[in-house]
Amino acid sequence: MFGASIGRGASRIIGAMVRGLARRRINPNVLTVIGVSINVVSGLLFGFGHFFWAGLVLIVANLFDMLDGQVARRTGQVTRFGGFLDSTLDRVSDMAAFVGLMTFYARDTELHSTLNVLLAGLALVGSVLVSYASARAESLIPKCDVGFLRRPERVVLLIIGALSTHPGSESFFANRMPAVLWILCVGSFWTFTYRVYHTWKELNRAPEPTAADAQSPEAAASDGPPAKAAGASNTDAGRPKRARRPDPRPALTKGE
After folding, report:
1. How many helices (H) and strands (E) does the chain have?
2. Interval 231-246: pLDDT, tens
3. For 53-101, what is each residue's pLDDT tens digit?
4. 241 vs 110, 217, 224, 227, CA distance in Å?
5. Which pLDDT does position 232 carry in this prediction?
6. Is residue 234 part of a domain?
7. Is 224 exposed, middle or buried (0-12, 13-18, 19+ CB in 10 A)?
8. Catalytic residues
9. Residue 48: which domain range?
10. Is residue 126 part of a domain?
């Protein structure tokens, strides 16, 4: 009950922000760039060891990540480039946080840890692999968002680890970032492996396309000698033009 009330309250706040931004006709790509810029600031704070403030900044940054898509849909500004930009800059945001953590744990401080540097690096690699596997798979199958450690879950874990960091605290719940890095490392590679398996299973359900299947009935009916180049002969003027085939390129995905 309490959690549902918080969710409803957050939805109202986000809805009000979306309506305000939509009335001002803010370009959603601008919100995307602002979001990734704030994420880079969060990464810098991680690198300097200000974990608590980095967690707060991370919350603000990902608020913009929720707003840009909703504003684009509400104002009718959904474009393929917008989807590409959003997906690409999400990867930059992920890398900023992990590079900041690697920098901090590699520094000569009392919290220096080669193991944590390795875990942050592996978590970075795993997060990129998860996103790439999804984007590549969805050029072959309709959807590949399986696995429990997608980008929203990774961000929430980073926020928990950051906000729990209080050096010197003896509380069991304090300083949980190393545990978070273990979860991110193992969970990302598990999710990547599961997406590879899911794609293999989905592709095996449908028969592989053959050369005969690749040729449409319309194209087969219109087969004939190739058309001459424009201007080669006046006898081509009365011939009907062959219809252009639809663009076979898949739609862009966020690749979370």
Report:
1. 9, 0
2. 444 444 444 444 444 4
3. 999 999 999 888 888 888 888 888 888 999 899 889 999 999 999 999 9
4. 74, 17, 13, 9
5. 45
6. no
7. exposed
8. 90
9. 9-205
10. yes
